[in-house]
Amino acid sequence: MLIKIVLPAVLVVIMFSLGLGLRREDFTRVLRQPKPFALGAFNQMLIVPVTGFAVATLFGLPPALAVGVMILALCPGGVLSNVLTRAAHGSVPLSVSLTAVISLVSIITLPVATALSVRHFMGAEAPPVNVLTLGVQTFLLTAVPVALAVFLTARAPDFVARIAGWMTKVSFGLFLILIVLALMANWETFTANIATLGPALLTMNAILLAAGLLTSKLAGLSVRDTTTVSIESGIQNGSLGIAVGGIVAGVATGLPEMVLPTAIYSITTWALTLPFVVWRRRLAD
User: Fold this and answer.
1) Count of structural domains within the chain
2) Tens of pLDDT, residues 141-151
3) What range defines the domain where residue 61 resides?
């Protein structure tokens, strides 16, 4: 019930919340800001998965946890990346555009790359992954609620303005519950692997934030755009990662160990991201 009903329902609510306030120009802004968007997309679609693969391999993570790291790395940004960008005085429109467009692209890239990751890390023990089925499920759980929210924003902007704030809070609360459930369901695996998994995920977060800064500097982006690209590189949609991990593992009840990296990353990322946000905010002021 948790995997088949509760988890998808929570993800739908979170993605609907993400879509509230999105407008058509958030998807077309890439034409007006091609360089910052292209760099952010490059980081999310290439640097983040490559970093996830390198971390999972070099730290020698168990197969299921290595796949979990890859699923996390294949996820786009989410509501949290938009919120942190605003707090850091980055470019919120750029952040929203990256989240919106990459979320659509990931409907194709995430199932394909996930299937390859499962086969690579788990070998003969790999559960069967139907790329088409996973793609359809990802579409229904992400694109459909976002599209409905965009439609509602266009048709009833005043109503959306009233509900957007508390919907974001509800979404964040539901995500915290998912993290707690994931840790409780896999407590033995968590305690057995945290000494390796914790440093691995902190390393991943540090590399991605640094990669965002370095690539942005090389591209000559502004302070605000640099902040945004860095945060979008370092923060992934954890709710989607947990949902995909649950679907791929194919368990009927509970949350599988495959979702542990996403749950732990959602906690450890604050250790580096909060100081990063404070630092970037000072630079922007």
Assistant:
1) 1
2) 888 888 898 88
3) 2-278
